[in-house]
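Example 3.2
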Amino acid sequence: MVIRIPNWLGDALMATPVYYNLCRQEKIYLFGPPHIADLFKNFPNTEIIYYKRGKNKENLQTLKHLKKEIGLLLTNSFSSAWLFFRARIKERWGYATDLRRFLLTKAVKPPKKKLHQKDYYLNLLKSLGLPSEFNDLILPLGDEAFKQAKALLKGIDKPFIVIAPGAAYGPAKMWPKKYYKALARELIKSGYAVIIAGGIKEKETGDFIKDSSSQIYNLCGKTDLPTVAGIFSMAKAVVSNDSGLMHLAAALKVPQIAIFGSTDPELTAPLNPNAIVLKKELPCSPCFERTCKYGHYKCLTSITVEEAVSSVLELI
C-alpha cells in the first residue's frame, strides 16, 4: 500500500496510528515531503518515497513501479487524487472531498461529527475495512537521531527544557515572544537550561529570547526533524504553541505544555498523557484565523508567564 501522507508536520504525526496499523499487516510506502517523511523511516515494514512539490513528472516517475498497489490518500486535495490517477495507481482510496470523488475507486464520505484529527484519519481506515485498533501516536526513532542530538547538546551540563515559539499557521497561534523570553528566564532561575527549537523562520525569535543568556541555546534552523525528535526525547519538558512540534512532543510522550490561541483543542490537542493545555475561553474563540481580526490577541496574551511556569514545574 502506498500512503500519501499529509503535508503538514502536525497532521503527519497525528496520522501515525494509520501507518502503524497498516505496516503491521503488510509493507507500506509513505509518500510525502522529504523533510517530513524522513521522520518516519524507522517504522517497521516501511519504505519512504519522496513527494517533490511542483515536480509532477518526477512524482509520476517515482510512483511508476507502484501501479499495482492500493493508494491511500490521507490528504484531502484534488491534486493528490489527480496525481495518483495519472500515475495509474490501480486502487485509489480516500475521503470524497474537494470534488475528487470521480478520481477515487473507493470514496468515503467525511464524518459529520467533530473529530480530533487523529480520529479523522482512523475513521477513514474503519470506513474502508482496514485495521484500526491501534490508536495512539507513535514515533520510533533510530540511533542516528540521538547521535545528532547529543552532538548538538554537547557541553550542556544541566537538565534542559525546550521551548518552541513558532507556528506555521500565523500569529493567532503564537504566544508572544516576550512571554517566551520571560518564561526562559524563570526556568533558568529554577535550575534548568533552555533549548529553543524551530526552523530558520524562528531564528530571529530565538535570538530575541536568548538575548545575552549563556544558559539559553538557540538551535532554530540548525536541525532536521529527526534530530529535533532526539532532543525532545532527552528534554525534561517541551513548551510550545499549537504547532507541528507540539505534536512531535506528544508522539514522543515528552511532558509538555501546549499553548492554544485561535484553534480548538478538541480538534488538535496533544494526545499525550503528560500534557497540560493552556487556553482561555473567550467569546470570539476558537476563531481559526491566522491573525486576530480585533487586533488584541487576548486569547494568547491572557495566558500569563506565571501560569506557564507553574504548569511546567507541576509536570516535572
